[in-house]
Amino acid sequence: MKRVCVVTGSRAEYGLLRWVMEGFKNSDVCTLQTVVTGMHLSPEFGSTWREIEADSFSIDWKVEMLLGSDSASAVTKSMGIAMIGFADAFSHLKPDLLVILGDRFEMLAAASAALIAGIPIAHLHGGELTEGAYDDAIRHSLTKMSHLHFTAASEYRDRVIQLGEDPARVWDVGGFGLDSITNVKLLSRAEVEDNLKISLSDKSLLVTFHPETRPDAVPEKQLEELLHALGQSSAVVVFTMPNADNKNRMLRTMIEEFVQQHSGRAVVHASLGQQLYLSTLAEVDAVVGNSSSGLIEAPAFSKGTVNIGRRQDGRLRAKSVVDCEARRSDIAEAIEKVLDPRFQIEITSQQNPYGTGGASVKTVSIIENWFREKVSMSKKFYDLP
User: For the chain, how many structural domains are there in total?
Assistant: First the structure.
């Protein structure tokens, strides 16, 4: 049995990895190892490692890394602490393959430790662009460290190959977040409202706003504009908290103050968990913010998305996504558009550029076959013809 180690550092990332982990857990070729780190281990972000155990996964190692600050210096130091922790984890667990997803700094630390330890890496959701975040550079760096690649769309597969990866090792499997939509039993509207502690009323919005990490971005000013637009709206607002990126604490404080000022029509949750998040997504009228979920999962529910600013610049979009600048007037106009019944009817038959699901099963099967066939994990740079 080959030891496959999956690393997860956040609630959103785990939601995408959930069914990949299930596949390895039930495999007759692979043994699943689970390493948790980052926001999962922080009470401030909901101690979401408990959700992993609640889904009947054993956690083999915990890598504590987050410092009590959200400055650029603190994030960099956290990465250093994480590399030390991953070095210990991999030395003990001795995985045959490391599986990582996406573009966060936690994964850069994990991949760097694995690279030096000679552990092959399978990278999920590579080849994408997010030009409004330093995640973009991290994602492409992870591609160059990795040996197997599983992308969410054919355009992304092409980009991974453009980066010099062998086409025989790059598979377009679709978006991993869509698998949970078909595998998770959604709660009823009444159950959603009971868990959220608020009535969703006639119009409701699910809002997630992460800091833009490009050098010229001012996240607190962007959020100020968003909160002003939401304050002028009569819709019920359900906030989920931002990731542990630079300046996240300032944004969290601003959101909490908004909720206090608009009690009765606004709530905030550090983490909803996968089932409640998807169930809420199914029941609200639209999504607002700059999360990738608004581009990948929301279209599967035929929900409109107001995508603010540049964080997701470069990613594929369904026609349900309305882009706008981080200006209160533009945001208000975009919210009005996605709540328009005519717009909502128009997007019911749209195609999701990230597919219809099945990415997790495909990925597990490909990795199992790779091990069965005992293919070499050595890499060579692939030059385009």
Answer: 2
Q: Are residues 132 and 233 in the same domain?
A: no
Q: Which domain holds residue 364?
A: 2-174+358-372
The span from the CA of 240 to the CA of 230, in Å, is 15
pLDDT per residue over 10-63, tens digit each? 988 999 999 999 999 999 999 999 999 999 999 888 899 999 999 999 999 999
pTM of the predicted structure, to 2 decimals: 0.87
DSSP state of 169: G
Contacts of 356 (CB under 8 A, 6+ apart): 174, 178, 300
Angle separating helix axes 359-372 and 11-25, nearest 10 degrees: 50
Instruction: Identify the residue whose tokens are 């857990």.
Output: 25
Region label for 289, one of left (φ > 0), alpha (ψ between -120 and 50) or beta (otherwise): left
**How far, in Å, CA of 91 to CA of 114, rounded?**
10
Output phi, psi for 70, to 5 deg: -120, 25
How far is residue 385's CA from residue 106's CA, in Å, rounded to a whole number? 35
